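User: Please fill in residues for this 175-position structure.
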């Protein structure tokens, strides 16, 4: 139990010293519930997107999450640090929009635009315009905002989040 509390305290201290100092003194972990869940969600999604990375540390994190999710720790902390991984399927299911996955235009509309090195800009623009032509009716049919430039190498696997800023936001909100 001490190890779990020490690791959770260390996460907050490493992101924001002032908030971490307050947490160590008050021991109110439930004030940081959304922060902890968000951090572990990011790590789990990062591993899903990059299976070749975090080989040993990911296993350690899973053991930690198993310990932290025990009934005893959940009662002590006042919440569970484990939350379901957010996926496109769960998002669409929640929005009652699973029909999007069966739409034949989804493949061409979400396909990555790969341009070999040296491809002229006008050719890349042509490929992107073709993708947009397929994307417009798809968005209209499903009333969704589908975003992305089509260049995977230039985008992170999840929205960039400054953890320290998130810590300050969660301490103000105290979810």
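Assistant: Residues filled in for all 175 positions:
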């Amino acid at each position: 139990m001490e190890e779990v509390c020490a690791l959770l305290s260390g996460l907050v201290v490493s992101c924001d010293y002032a908030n971490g100092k307050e947490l160590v003194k008050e021991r109110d972990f439930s004030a940081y519930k959304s922060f902890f869940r968000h951090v572990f969600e990011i790590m789990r999604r990062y591993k899903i997107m990059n299976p070749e990375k975090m080989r040993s540390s990911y296993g350690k994190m899973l053991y930690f999450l198993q310990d932290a999710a025990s009934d005893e720790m959940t009662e002590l902390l006042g919440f569970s640090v484990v939350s379901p991984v957010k996926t496109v399927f769960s998002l669409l299911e929640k929005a009652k929009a699973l029909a999007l996955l069966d739409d034949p235009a989804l493949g061409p509309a979400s396909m990555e635009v790969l341009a070999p090195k040296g491809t002229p800009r006008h050719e890349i623009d042509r490929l992107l315009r073709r993708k947009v032509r397929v994307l417009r009716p798809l968005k209209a049919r499903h009333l969704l905002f589908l975003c992305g430039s089509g260049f995977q190498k230039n985008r992170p696997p999840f929205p960039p989040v400054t953890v320290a800023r998130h810590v300050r936001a969660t301490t103000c909100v105290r979810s």
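For context: Residues 145-175 have pLDDT under 50 and may be disordered.
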